[in-house]
Amino acid sequence: MHKVVIVGAGLAGHRAACELRKQGYDDEITMVGDEPHPPYDRPPLSKQVLEGTMEHRDLFFPSEDLHVTWKLGEPATGLDPLRKMVRVGAGAELPYDGLIIATGRGAREWPGDLGGLDGFYTLRSFDHCRRLKDNLLDQPRVAIVGAGFIGCEVAATLRGRGVEQVTVIDVAGYPMAGLGPEVGRHAAGIHTEEGVRFRLGTTVTGFEGNGRVERVLLCEGPPVDTDLVLFALGSAPSSDWLADSGLRLQDGNVVCDENLFAIGYENITVAGDIASFPHPHIDGLTRVEHWSAAREMGTLAAANLIGEPGQRTPFRAVPTFWSNQYNLKIKSAGFINQADSFTVIEEDSARRSLVVEARRGGRLVGAVTVNKNKKIIEYTRELAAAG
Ligand SMILES: Cc1cc2nc3c(=O)[nH]c(=O)nc-3n(C[C@H](O)[C@H](O)[C@H](O)COP(=O)(O)OP(=O)(O)OC[C@H]3O[C@@H](n4cnc5c(N)ncnc54)[C@H](O)[C@@H]3O)c2cc1C
Predict the structure, then answer these.
(1) Which of 16, 267, 304, 380 has the fewest CB atoms within 10 Å, i.e. the most exposed one?
(2) 8 CB less than 6 Å from ligand 1?
(3) More confident residue, 91 or 189
(4) Helix 11-22 / helix 291-306 crossing angle, nearest 10 deg
(5) Residue boundaries of the structural domains of the chain
(6) 47 CB within 6 A, ligand 1
(7) To 5 degrees, how large is the angle CA 283–CA 286–CA 290?
(8) φ, ψ for residue 199 (rounded to 5)?
(9) Which of ligand 1's atoms lies nearest the C-alpha of 324?
(10) CATH number among 2.30.30.60, 3.30.390.30, 3.30.565.10, 3.40.50.1820, domain 327-386
(11) What's the CA-to-centroid distance between 381 and ligand 1, angstroms?
(12) What is the dihedral of CA 272, 277, 279, 285, to 10 degrees?
């Protein structure tokens, strides 16, 4: 293999390039990224960078020693796996012997009409963060549509920055619904103590304002007055460029085998948030949007791509996730979305700590802890041993 192309200059793509070099691959690596920046870390965008305690320049992963040919600022727009060509931008073609797909996910956009108004933001990238941060100055009221991780992290960060009125709106009855009702209620209580206002169990019906958004209209209750709106509506897979490639996609995610090879292709591997893969703890396919999984998959996708077929390592790691909000260290392990029941094992309101087990048919499938870091390590080990 003499030409490896990595599409997606994010966490998984960067780890893949590091691993290729670590394994002694010294031929050409070309990394294609639609953002104008070299690979950087996303978790601090909703935390330290927005807070002002970390500079944008400190986000970048060290890339100088990778000797990569960069194609930044232009997206991959197509793939022909039979001719082994990636199309970039308006039509330039990039040949490869081996391809690593790591294009991740983009912010889900508001699906409705914005009434021609300004003042709407999303947060997925460095440029989104800079735009949001610049426009937060002198804005005392912020409405966040979506009470998932990013919505909650931003709410916490903004309250920490002294933003006067932060309102989080969601159709779900509690925040971070993906972690189950117990964690959601615990988090809602703490956010409320910290001054966040919630409008839960309701939907946004529209926006009003004069040039800029001034009010968010809800299907129940009075509108939310605001100076800006952040949409934190989750993510959508960045796979439009693969639509005509013949690669197998499931809900827009690229389907791969346990060794992360795109189904039917021995020279294409897939890593990170875009991958849909089998896992020993799951029936069928799964996907995760966690930093640690993207990092590990990037490493494996590279090692397996250039390794001998008999020496491939399957991706079997127990997924783990963390989120920092105020003084809360929220951590999860396993596949919480598989659970049919949640049990609170420990709760201490003074320490704001919580331990919740997630089970399916009585079997442990995951756990969530708040301010109980050692406990999550134990659960991760238990889940790994069970698998
Ligand atoms: C604000 C924020 C906070 C987060 N906080 C946490 C956290 O606290 N804990 C945690 O576990 N996880 C967190 N995550 C999730 C974590 O950052 C992701 O799981 C991880 O970045 C996924 O890595 P990836 O390489 O798959 O995708 P990404 O890091 O998203 O990289 C994909 C890259 O591919 C680019 N791309 C897309 N389409 C194309 C194309 N057609 N051509 C070329 N390039 C393309 C994208 O622009 C992007 O640069 C957070 C994510 C965000 C956005």
Answers:
(1) 267
(2) yes
(3) 189
(4) 40
(5) 3-106+236-311, 109-233, 327-386
(6) no
(7) 140
(8) -125, 95
(9) 8
(10) 3.30.390.30
(11) 26
(12) 130
- Ligand 1 center–CA 266 separation, angstroms: 25
86-114 average pLDDT score = 96
Q: Whose CA is nearest to atom 4 of ligand 1?
A: 43
Does residue 287's CB lie within 6 angstroms of at least one atom of ligand 1?
no
Q: Which residue type occupies 132?
A: L
Residue range 343-358, pLDDT digits in tens: 999 999 999 999 999 9
Among protein residues, the one with the nearest Cα to ligand 1's atom 50 is 43
Q: What is the Rg, in whole angstroms, of the alpha carbon atoms belonging to the chain?
A: 22
Protein residue with its CA nearest to atom 7 in ligand 1: 43
Rounded to an integer, what distance in angstroms lies between the CA atom of residue 175 and that of residue 122?
18
**Is the distance from the beta carbon of residue 14 to the nearest atom of ligand 1 less than 6 Å?**
no
Q: Ligand 1, closest atom to CA 129?
A: 1
Separation of alpha carbons 177 and 331, rounded Å: 14
Asked whether the whole model's pTM tops 0.90, one would answer yes
Q: Could you tell which of 19, 35, 42, 100 is best to mutate to test the pocket of ligand 1, judged by most ligand atoms within 8 Å of the CB?
A: 42
CATH of 109-233, one of 3.30.70.20, 3.50.50.60, 3.90.650.10, 3.40.1360.10: 3.50.50.60
Q: Was domain 3-106+236-311 assigned CATH 3.20.20.70? A: no
pLDDT reported for residue 138: 76
Least-confidence region, from 50-59, 204-213, 284-293, 329-338 = 50-59
pLDDT, tens digit (0-9, with 9 covering 90-100), for 45-83 = 999 999 999 988 899 999 999 999 999 999 999 999 999
Are 3-106+236-311 and 109-233 the same fold in CATH? yes
